[in-house]
Design goal:
alpha/beta, Rossmann fold, 6-stranded mixed beta sheet, 5-stranded mixed barrel, 33% strand, globular, disordered C terminus, binds adenosine-5'-diphosphate, binds magnesium ion
Length: 334
């Protein structure tokens, strides 16, 4: 079990991570999600022992890791750009640490690992002949080779293009589960975090502002900025929040985060508004509607309907796509 207790890291007295507290049980996959510069890589490097902490404790099974050098922590690191050895074959890369340790049956283990990451038969290829996605799979297999007690992943998929990133994220999830790996991943991409992890910590300006089960964090973002960073389309407060929550049959809250498609054109609904613009996708018609008492909000209509700009429509609210957030508090706090 990994635990961080009020860990801070600073560069030349400028704080990069402040009071980070986290727990990762064996087998957990936790994503730290935050914008660029929020301190994610610094946190990961501190866990790896590559960055000295200025305060707090980083422990494994309760034992303080201070003074334990990186190579004795039993952790593996994987970066955005894989960092394969260009002159070694795929099998050579994956088996590198096994050979250093003179692990018996290394060749068999390499074959197993290549199967795990979906690269059977790639053993003799050189990294230069692989696609970006294949290279990251090799990097992952290499990280898993020595069965690290913790895998640290720094934006492992960020260098890949969108479609590939999505597929590899799903594979990464399956591979980590299949190997039973405990993993701490940092990323700026909420889709990636949701696709790979079960637990989420949201980081901002060096601080972890919310953490928990990924579905719980998604359901109840701690503040407006977190909601928007998690991929909510809008945050409404004041009277607008009250109007929407009342229409959804929910209790009042200072603010409400609104996911895309929270509103749908209905036969008769509790809300009405005027279509501002529309765009057809293969599944639905996406609209921007100026809703009475709320302002412009995304909404959807079924294909085959043709709500035109300027037309008045009734709207139904999907309560599962709304989340109350204490956004008022956040704004006054800056
Ligand atoms: P993230 O990974 O979330 O993008 P980082 O952990 O890389 O963020 O950086 C956090 C903050 O620390 C940033 O303000 C960054 O400029 C600063 N920082 C990172 N690495 C160094 C370094 N080696 N020296 C000085 N400042 C650094
Ligand atoms: Mg980083």
């Amino acid at each position: 079990m990994l635990s961080l207790h009020d860990v801070s890291v600073a560069y030349d007295a400028v704080p990069a991570v402040v009071d980070a507290t986290l727990t990762l049980a064996d087998g957990d996959v936790l994503a730290v999600l935050g914008p660029s510069g929020s301190g994610k890589s610094t946190l990961l490097r501190a866990v790896a022992g590559l960055e000295p902490t200025t305060a707090g404790r980083i422990c494994w099974d309760g034992a303080d890791l201070a003074g334990v050098p990186t190579h004795k922590r039993g952790f593996a690191l994987m970066f955005q750009d894989g960092q394969l050895f260009a002159h070694l074959t795929v099998a050579g890369n994956v088996g590198y640490a096994l050979r250093l340790r003179r692990t018996p049956k290394a060749r068999e283990r390499v074959r197993e690992l290549l199967a795990l990451v979906g690269l059977e038969g790639y053993g003799d290829r050189l990294p230069g002949t692989l696609s970006g996605g294949e290279r990251q799979r090799v990097a992952l297999a290499r990280s898993l080779a020595v069965s690290p007690r913790l895998l640290l992943l720094d934006e492992p998929l960020s260098a890949l293009d969108a479609g590939l990133r999505e597929r590899l994220a799903a594979d990464l999830r399956d591979i980590l589960r299949a190997a039973g790996t405990t993993a701490l991943m940092v990323t700026h991409d909420h889709d990636e975090a949701f696709a790979v992890a079960d637990l989420l910590a949201v980081m901002r300006s060096g601080r972890i502002v919310q953490q928990g089960d990924i579905a719980e964090v998604w359901r109840a973002p701690v503040d407006a900025e977190t909601a928007l960073f998690l991929g909510y389309a809008r945050v409404l407060d004041g009277a607008a929040a009250g109007t929407l929550l009342a229409a959804a049959g929910l209790a009042a809250a200072p603010a409400v985060a609104v996911r895309r498609s929270a509103l749908a054109v209905a036969e008769g609904g509790p809300l009405g508004g005027v279509v501002v613009s529309g765009r057809a996708t293969p599944e639905q018609i996406r609209l921007v509607v100026d809703v009475d008492g709320i302002g412009e909000v995304d909404a959807v209509a079924r294909l085959g309907t043709h709500p035109a700009p300027g037309e008045r429509v009734a709207l139904a609210v999907d309560p599962s796509r709304l989340a109350a957030t204490p956004a008022g508090r956040e704004r006054s706090g800056g």
